[in-house]
Fold Cytochrome c biogenesis protein ResB.
Amino acid sequence: MSNLNTTDEREIGTAGEQLSTAPREESATTVPALGVIGWARWFWRQLTSMRVALILLFLLSLGAIPGSLIPQNSVDEMKVEAFKGDHTTLTPLYEKLQFFDVYSSVWFSAIYILLFISLIGCIVPRTGQFVGQLRSRPPGAPKKLTRLPAYTTWRTEAEPEQVREAALAVLRKRRFRSHTAGDAVAAEKGYLREAGNLLFHIALIVMLIAFGWGQLFKFEGGKLVLEGDGFSNTRTQYDDFRPGTLFTDEDLVPFSFGLDAFEGTYERTGPQRGTPRTFEAHVTYSEGVDGKPKKKVVQVNKPLVVDGTKVYLNAHGYAPVVSVKDGRGKEVYRNAVPLLPQDDNITSTGAIKVLDGYRDANGEKTQLGFQAFFVPTFAGNGKGTMFSQFPALDYPVLALNGFHGSLGVDSGLPQNVYQLDPSKMEMFKDGSGNQLKQRLRPGETMTLPDGAGSITFEGVEEWASFQISRQPAAGWALTGAVAAIAGLAGSLFIQRRRVWVRAVPGPDGVTVVEMAGLGRSESAKLPEELADLAVELHTQAPTAPEPESGTGTESDQPSEEPAEGAEK
């Protein structure tokens, strides 16, 4: 080896590496160069795979959890502000994660869009494959039908061509797509299984589009209307309003309605005492700016519908009519004050606020506030607490306690009209120094101390609360849901299967009939179906008589009757 020069050593070393059986050492940094197009293809294959689609569905369901548990700005901004005040530590984190606007957040929208693309990328190639399957014919019979899970055979005197023609007629009668391929008839059935699968995925896309469109352009609001009052479909008329992300005021359909009367009757006796029997709002409405007035009775789950906008009857309650006089006897306030029901018997609470026009006994301007508690049917003095015994106006009573001072409405902060903030007010006291309280029947008056005036319970009016909403593409979402259920049912319950019938002359000239079936998935009904087909075909190609004794061995004698679904 010492006589070899450097070049020879290099050549011998290279040849030795080629002859060696040891694994070749490659650099750990070697990475296949896919290029931009290669990486794009890889990413597209991953995105359109079933595994990624399931992961995206799981992430979408996880993303909906904070939207259900945490108050959303699109639903109730006041609840969001209250949550922020109660959870000062979590609020900065939630704001960065957009947990107060989940359904319009960047991360939720990204998951939504990726799932949408994934479904489309899955459906398009599968649709092409399905169309190709519909245009193609069932494949020819395998060489050995005995290997298939459902198999039967018998011998017949009918000619092979006659057997194949009879088999073709039987299979087509059973709605098999069939044709003759060589010495056998090939048939297939159950294409609606794949059609159901495609329908399910397409329906999911329709539902995703409808849901997204509805969330972007929907609106929902509430309005409390007293008997005799009305509503016009403008944003300023709503008590609360929750628009979609891309909603604009121009999308509001012009219409108006007035509450003529509310009719409510209740069960008087029996275990269902107090249950509503009649719950109707009689309204007069008009479409557009100059529409003709029309009458309509709005009931629960029977809304007023105007050009896609629905007006639902949501709730009902009472509004005591009160009048307030100042120390000089001048009436400074008269109004029907809606109160909020607290139970099924419409025990109601609220606040009466006198903002302007009132002067005390010294002539100074101030504000009045009364905490109100109303029962439509009072049990009577000494008969329990102040709770209603029945929802109808059988024995109405209004309980009041009063305050004077500042109501706090000039601070610029939003205030609940049904609650009284007495933090900057002083309570009225009676002669004993206790808080002034009094129960009033219609027509009765509570006199305020020290010549501060009086408040009178004049009567009771009724109100109805309406929910006005517009949900674009709701019909498409419902159609998609129904189609998804139908497609899922088809993909689960329809069985795709193939059947072959081979008829060839045997060694003795008698036709040998073989039938076999193969399901694309496991099915216990396939042998039964093959047996039914064999019985029907057997009526046209009956079993041949037994050959004479000695003409054949026992091992090569066919069965006289078709075996029902013999499984291998």
